[in-house]
Design brief:
The chain is of the alpha/beta class. The protein has 2 domains: about 140 residues, P-loop containing nucleotide triphosphate hydrolases (Rossmann fold); about 60 residues, Guanylate Kinase phosphate binding domain (2-Layer Sandwich), CATH 3.30.63.10. It has 8 helices and 9 strands. The strands form 2 sheets. It has a 5-stranded parallel β-sheet with strand order 2-7-1-8-9, sandwiched between helices. α1 crosses α7. The radius of gyration is 19 Å and the shape is globular. Pfam families: Guanylate_kin. InterPro entries: GK/Ca_channel_bsu, Guanylate_kin-like_dom, Guanylate_kinase, Guanylate_kinase_CS, P-loop_NTPase. Essential for recycling GMP and indirectly, cGMP. GO terms for molecular function: ATP binding; GMP kinase activity.
Length: about 210
């Protein structure tokens, strides 16, 4: 019996590329994936649950976890910390579940440093023009902020070499199907299974 550990999959890409939409569609399909729950110091909002929406911590607790190296990545936005707890991810993986993390590029690079065995997928816009349209069509940002986001996106696209796979998000359905194929093929990789098969052969005394 092959006792397979789960794999951590990290979906990342520039702002406006549609990471959240792709992740939601992936989880709408029948999947055994576990979503990586983030940790935050922000207050719980009505209807949210600890351990479902986020793991909620005080600032002191969060900073202690940073010092102890217990976060795969973290960042600070508007005086609140957000991060990915290592313990939850490792626990799910050891139970044989694949864990899925959707995150900004800088966060993904931190995860790569702390958890290099993860599988990193870069979600790519069909074109920079299309990315610009998506950011503009959100209608929530000023001209200056849009330009900054586009500059940032260009820089992030240059960091693509840090990733294992690139998926173009020209169509959400196609993108999700490609991600499902990546997940499947990663489980068939020889180096993942070889050690376990060798053990079976050793245990099986002819």
């Amino acid at each position: 019996m092959i006792d397979e550990k789960g794999i951590l999959f990290i979906l990342s890409g520039p702002s406006g590329v549609g990471k959240g939409t792709v992740r939601k569609e992936l989880f709408n399909r029948k999947t055994d994936l576990k979503y990586s729950i983030s940790m935050t110091t922000r207050d719980m909002r009505p209807g949210e649950e600890d351990g479902v929406d986020y793991f909620y911590k005080s600032k002191e607790e969060f900073e202690e976890l940073i010092d102890q190296g217990k976060l795969l990545e973290y960042a600070k936005f508007v005086n609140n910390y957000y991060g990915t707890p290592r313990e939850y991810v490792e626990e799910m993986l050891s139970q044989g579940y694949d864990v899925f993390l959707e995150i900004e590029v800088q966060g993904a690079l931190q995860v790569k440093e702390n958890f290099p065995e993860g599988v990193f997928i870069f979600l790519f816009p069909p074109s920079l023009e299309e990315l610009k349209n998506r950011i503009v069509n959100r209608g929530t940002e000023s001209e200056e902020l849009i330009l900054n986001r586009l500059k940032e996106a260009r820089n992030e696209i240059e960091l693509m070499d840090a990733y294992d796979y690139v998926v173009v998000n020209d169509d959400v359905d196609h993108a999700v199907t490609k991600i499902q194929s990546i997940i499947q093929s990663e489980h068939c990789k020889r180096e993942r299974i070889a050690a376990q098969y060798k053990k079976i052969l050793e245990d099986d005394v002819l």
